[in-house]
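Allow me, if you will, to draw on your knowledge of protein folds for a short while. I have a record of one protein: its chain in single-letter code and its fold written as discrete structure tokens. I remain grateful for any guidance, and I place the record below:
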Amino acid sequence: MEAGGSVILSGSWADTQGGREMPPAGRVFRASVGAEGRLRDEARAVWSYLHAALARPLGLILLERSKDASPGWLGSFPDLAPTDHPCTRSTIGLPTSGTTGTPKRAVRDVRQAFDAKRTGDSEARWLLGYAPHRWAGVSVLLQAVRARAAVVVPASFDAADVVAAGRSGGATHVGMTPSHLRRILLSMDASELARLPLRQVTFGGEVATQSILDKAGALWPAARVTHVYATTELGDVCSVSDGRAGFPRRKFERAGFAVDPGGELLVDGRGTGDLWELGDDRYHFVGRREERVDVGGATVSLVGVEAAALAVDGVIEARAYARRSALLGHVVALDFAGDVGERELRRALRAGLPKYAQPASLRRVDAVALSDAHKVRREETA
């Protein structure tokens, strides 16, 4: 269904496919991920797949974006090619975001993920803020299917398209990365965002700093603001909606959770690669192993440096990354965007960070580098 600047997904397989038959059970289907500008087609196909996979064992592998000049798109199921591989579960193959390395593939069982979702509000309209071929996007679609709610799909993830879709589609719920909201705030006046009738704001994919939780609360005072810890490999791990950064200690010390001596979170004995620190009876995410930098023998969390910068009034976006140093091995560099002076920012960071963690260089940019998963990129630069 079209609604101004949005497409609204709702209903069952039959509703989305007209009179077309459901794909045969027990087969794996392959498709390439949608090209730029085909977000709505991609969302329609994944939405339809979820309905089919939940009704019978049906596997679909979503490939990474094609490398040729004319990448393919997902389309509807009659356009997908079945393979000879049998499928005994309702599985979906998803690429990880690859923010800190080469993307990997993780296989998830759709039925298990569906059963873990709450029934929710059938009147909700979820504004899709994640690519449908990522776990976060699948998770939003699954939540809507579980609740028999609707999903509002923008024409693209550009700020104007997202806000236009949210308004024309009457979005009441939204899921997005903190960096995506910061990018939208950098691109348009906050008053435009505040006009969205949101009742639920859910952050995932990255650490939700106190500053972004506070901004969301100020924009939409009637909304519940939630942040979720999830991974493509494990799915949704835990969530909290109390307006505070970090996760309560009890959520991380329940059965199946452990933090090893090095700070890595283990879930059912599996290492996540994600590092956490305990403070004020809450666990705080301090980055992946690859996101910690050795500066003259001291370990620095790039996530922590970014959080310190984002807490400074006027800073909208921040990206901390490592730069090589002949003397110290590495030093921290920081790109930032917003209405704040470099001298003022440096003064605030000196007051809030130990000396070894303070950025050796600051660079004002129009916008920081984000991945196509709307996450901050932290590759080392020369």
Observations:
- The chain has a mean pLDDT of 85.
